[in-house]
Amino acid sequence: TTTCQESFQELKEQLMKPPILGHPNFNETFIIQTDASDKGLRAVLWQNGKEGEKVIAYATRSLTFPETRYSATEKECLAVVWAIEKWRHYVEGCCFEVITDHAALTWLFNFPKPTSRLVRWALRLQEFQFDVKYRKGTLNHVSDALSRASANPTLTDVPSCCLVTTELTELETVPELNWDRIPTPDIKVDGLVYRKPSIELNNLKLFVPETLRIDIMKLYHDCPLAGHLGHTKT
């Protein structure tokens, strides 16, 4: 349609414009905007310069299984700790701001009864100089959208022909078969079953049924002609 074509053309024009990511200016205040969801953590590092807001970097990561069991406050605090440590080389030694959509984090260092996990994180952040500011989730568009973006593989959308092609490619890389490991067929001679231990060897080995193995061992070991006369003789 005309609308789709116009949208596609606008997208191409935006991609041809100067890079969206800006260069950091260490004379300006760094701002870290974080958010957490049940799936992952997301953060944006940006500055408010003369030309307006400019993004320095984006960061995302999925939650591990134990982290998915954290409370909402712990997840939001984890996002702050992770983002600050990730961009330590930008914010260490200077004052910066942290923006979150979780109001409880505005008094991170003054929790009345913090959990041991929150205490550890608060201690890790004491070396940094920053102020925590609250912004409603409805205004926290970028980091909120990143944290809720699904990263699940869409295998159901992959055509079956692509999967078949992958399997054929893997078969082409299989090394040559080791024919020595392939068992040789049994050979019957006068009612007895023989097996060849290897294709390269011509001698045959008599196959002894499992029910007769104990009797044959006793016959060859306990018979007087076997040479095993006991511990008093050799």
Automatic annotation (TrEMBL):
The keyword Transferase applies. CDD domains: RNase_HI_RT_Ty3 (cd09274). Residues 25-128 form the Reverse transcriptase RNase H-like domain. Keywords: Endonuclease, Hydrolase, Nuclease, Nucleotidyltransferase, RNA-directed DNA polymerase, Transferase. GO terms for molecular function: endonuclease activity; hydrolase activity; RNA-directed DNA polymerase activity. InterPro entries: DNA/RNA_pol_sf, Retrovirus_Pol_polyprotein, RT_RNaseH. Gene3D superfamilies: 3.10.20.370. The keyword Hydrolase applies. PANTHER family: PROTEIN CBG26694, PROTEIN NYNRIN-LIKE. This is Reverse transcriptase RNase H-like domain-containing protein.
